[in-house]
Amino acid sequence: MAASFDRGGLLVKRKAATERWLALPAAARDSARLSGASDLGSEAEDREGDSAGQYLTVLCWVGLGLGTLDAFVQPLPPGLVWAALGLSYLTGGLPPLRAAVAAVWQDRRLDIDLLMVVAAVAAAAVGAALEGAVLLALFSLSQTLEHRALGKARRAVEALMQLRPETALREGPEGVVEVPVAELVPGDRVILRPGARVPVDGRVASGAGHLDESTVTGESAPVRKAPGDPVHEATVNLDGILTVEVTRGLETSTVAQMIRLVTEAQAMKSPSERFSDWFGQRYTIAVLAGSALSWFGFRLSGHEADAALYRSATLLVAASPCAVVISVPAAILSALSAAARGGVLFKGGAALEGLAEVRTFAFDKTGTLTTGLAAVTQVLALEGTEDDFLALTAGLEAQSEHPIAAAIRREAAERRIVPLAVGDVRAHPSEGITGTDAEGQVWAGNTRMLALTGAVMPPRLARLAEGAETLVLVGRGTRVLGALTVADEPRATAAEALRGLKAGGRTDVLMMTGDRELVAGRIGARLGLASDEIHAGLLPGDKVRLVDAASARGKVAFIGDGVNDAAALARADVGVAMGVAGSEVALQAADVALMADDLRKLAAARRLARRTARVIRQNLTLSIGAMAGLVLGSLFLELPLPLAVLGHEGGTLLVVLNGLRLLADPIRVKA
């Protein structure tokens, strides 16, 4: 089957070439790319193979057309008819014969291609050369469609390679210089003009604008980028002039990760694919042996030798399991390609089928259901205005690297408040921070800092200290000036995504976190989760035990960041990594990778996985049913060989086309 599904082994060569390409040093890879010597330059080779197969299919059908014209419309010279049928046999029979011989010689395996050639030769031997030509023409057409389906997935790798720009504008002491992208190293700064494609993964150092990230994350709407925001290789700067600091080289870039994942997915088979492959290999032997034995059976039942041979040839065609074997790969490859276009990468068909069967979705909270970034939720000034209070607090926190300090600075920036100048800043671990402004010493921190300064908690702030959010007190000496509350916020898409998963029926959702129950309860309530769906105060081992317990009800998917939740990701039946356009670890740990931080894509991916499972069941039912009907007809009803040919190849075409419908189901969600 492998040989028929991949003419000439192009997929195997493509995978090996991709791996060799990614293993090259950046400089060598760039040199090869610029010189045209890269193995991935075999795109032309692949397309030549595709074109050659299509030309052979056309010639096969031309010969069949002349033979059909002679038989049913207008008699043609015998020499022309034999030449036309010979053309069909050569162009339609030699490629599968070559593949069958290669399968026998290299893998010691009888292939379905051999069945088709033997069936066509048997048809010619019983005087049904036209029917044999029909068989080869339809088989050649089905192979072309199969190869085109596979080519769509393979060309995803080529498209990713083509997304990479060749040069970048690097900013340095000598000014802005255009250099090859391969020369960029972490720490370099590049200038992005409007319309330019991002050359490497990096972080915005200055400037602001919108980027089209659809090629990498599947996001349909442009994403605004400001200083500090990450940018991914191969995305497009739509407006503004950005200065980007390089964070990763080409070897570990976003596109390199996607290429690895796509090539791995093509090589990893699902349980259904393994079954169809196993079935095809063994059934081929059974059909060849059964067809040979059937001749003796027909002879014993009173048929003449020619009639027995004709019926044996009919049985051989009817029992060939082409449609059964192609049923699963046609659907799986189409779904993998559709998912990749939508920004969801599956590590093979097994992950796709596994997601369709998941009963429980277990989510890590921080960084998955929430943004992972602290945000100011409330500002309460006891003296002066909120703006003055926030200006003082932002000035005090201006030099701190703490996440809470970053949240306060972002809040001030969003309100367009200029931080006051504060000097002599000192951090006090687990307590807070102190500094000096024009009026003297100021401080910010928790209740331990409050006790350290000798200040007393004002009654107006006491209720905030008992809440589910982090309290930051700000004061001068023993006087408390006010307070802020800071909390991690749910992702904008999280609640909708959870509703989408539950709408699928028979689905349990769990939220797991190491935070306090009050904090977890606040986030869970905003996401619409019930109290029994929220699990707080967990250690990594506790998450694994919860996944174990949930697995008793069915398959479990764990969704996390791929770093802190590696054990739970590994234990779950399906591990899903969030926002891995910037995480190498997540790609390695998970079975499914969401390229964007949009949980709605998980619900869409599950719908696609379930639809794929339905298409596979439809294909197997159709193909096995059609094959069984043809076999029974050839054994007991004297089924004509032309009808066996049309039924066999027609069924193969139907299951291929049914699988290709999944290509029109990309995982895209409206913003």
Write up what this structure looks like:
The chain is 55% helix and 17% strand. The protein is built from 25 helices and 22 strands. The strands form 4 sheets. A 7-stranded mixed beta sheet has the order 10-22-21-20-11-18-19, sandwiched between helices. Strands 2-1-3-9-4-7 form a 6-stranded antiparallel beta sheet, with no helix packed on it. A 6-stranded antiparallel beta sheet has the order 12-17-16-15-14-13, sandwiched between helices. Strand 14 (432-437) and strand 15 form a beta hairpin. Helix 6 runs antiparallel to helix 11 (305-319), helix 7 runs parallel beside helix 25 (641-660) and helix 19 (494-503) runs parallel beside helix 24 (600-636). The radius of gyration is 32 Å and the shape is elongated. The two termini are 43 Å apart.
Structural class: alpha+beta
* Overall mean pLDDT: 76
Low-pLDDT residue spans? 1-46
- Which descriptor suits the 3D outline? elongated
Radius of gyration: 32 Å
Q: What is the end-to-end distance?
A: 43 Å
Widest sheet, order of strands: 10-22-21-20-11-18-19
Largest sheet: 7 strands, mixed
Number of helices: 25
Helical fraction: 55-70%
Strands, helices and their partners?
Elements: H1 2-5, H2 10-23, H3 26-35, H4 43-72, H5 78-107, H6 112-125, H7 129-162, E1 167-172, E2 175-180, E3 189-192, E4 202-206, E5 209-212, H8 214-217, E6 223-225, E7 230-231, E8 236-237, E9 242-246, H9 254-267, H10 271-300, H11 305-319, H12 322-341, E10 344-346, H13 349-356, E11 358-364, H14 365-369, E12 370-381, H15 386-396, H16 403-414, E13 423-428, E14 432-437, E15 440-445, H17 447-453, H18 459-465, E16 470-476, E17 479-490, H19 494-503, E18 508-512, H20 517-526, E19 534-535, H21 540-551, E20 555-560, H22 566-571, E21 574-577, H23 584-589, E22 592-594, H24 600-636, H25 641-660
Parallel strand pairs: 11-18, 11-20, 18-19, 20-21, 21-22
Antiparallel strand pairs: 1-2, 1-3, 3-9, 4-7, 4-9, 5-6, 5-8, 10-22, 12-17, 13-14, 14-15, 15-16, 16-17
Helix pairs in contact: 2-9, 4-5, 4-7, 5-6, 5-7, 6-7, 6-11, 7-9, 7-12, 7-25, 10-11, 10-12, 11-24, 11-25, 12-24, 12-25, 13-24, 15-16, 19-24, 24-25
